[in-house]
Amino acid sequence: MRQSAAVELSGVSKQYGNATALDGIDLTVEAGSVFGMIGPNGAGKTTTMRLLLDIIRPTAGSIRVLGIDPMNGGAELRRRIGYLPGELRLEGRVTGRSLLEHYARISGPVGPGAIDALAERLGVQLDRAVRTLSKGNKQKLGLVQAFMHRPPLLVLDEPTSGLDPLVQREFLAMVREAREAGQTVFLSSHVLSEIQQVADAVAIVRSGRIVTVSSVEGLRETAVRRVRVGFADTTPEAVGARLAGIRNLSDLAVTGTATGTGTEVRATVSGDIDPFVKAIASFAIVDLAIEEPDLEESVLKLYGVGGES
Hints:
Blueprint: E1 5-16, E2 19-30, E3 34-38, H1 45-52, E4 60-65, H2 70-78, E5 81-84, H3 96-107, H4 114-122, H5 135-147, E6 153-157, H6 165-180, E7 184-189, H7 192-198, E8 201-206, E9 209-215, H8 216-221, E10 224-232, H9 236-243, E11 249-256, E12 262-270, H10 274-280, E13 284-290, H11 295-303
Parallel strand pairs: 3-7, 3-8, 5-6, 6-7
Antiparallel strand pairs: 1-2, 1-4, 8-9, 10-12, 10-13, 11-12
Helix pairs in contact: 4-5
């Protein structure tokens, strides 16, 4: 395993009877990076993460986590990982603080005040019984236990599930800080907007296979933009002729304005927007609206029409 890789999977498959959960995936997560895994429910995200913790074992292939085969790493390796499962179940009469102190004894040294600082950032009350907490507050406890011992590797399965937008923002700040501190973060989601804000690289998974691995910037370059432009003192014919040669335009509509003294263009630009911008630059523009790249639509193109549920 290369020293720069915190996680490596080579030819990894997982079978449950006749059902294939993972089908020969190859994956590398560079140390000190944030790596996102995106896919619909049932795509194989949770299976991949459970393999890293040796909760389940592969049918075929090899895995290295922090340079060690998880099947041989035992408790020592698991203490170097902060793990948040996708289906977090916390019950009992104990308080959140007691539960976290219990986890701290298992995970290893937790810095003085670390638990309280994380709880304050996420807005969770530690002195309430765990069983009385909402799903969102249980999720916050799960995040505290994953982050509190500052592990070299964080494995977070659907970490923002049940969190309100303000807490989601705080979580993303915590992920950035972890990367700046040299930690590696491997997180899964079916929500593209949160991945694109923090990830250095993204794996798109579908039906147990990796469709592609790309940087977020690479996904943006294939993204779809909706554009609307208003021009003064020109005709639809003149504008249409200028745009006719741009190959990555679709849904193009060129119409005259209500006043008859200008033109409006509506179109979809796939990928590089520069040719479109250069084509319209010679006209007098009075209105311009460009929607942010729609990464979800780009990813669905990789899945095929409609993706999967």
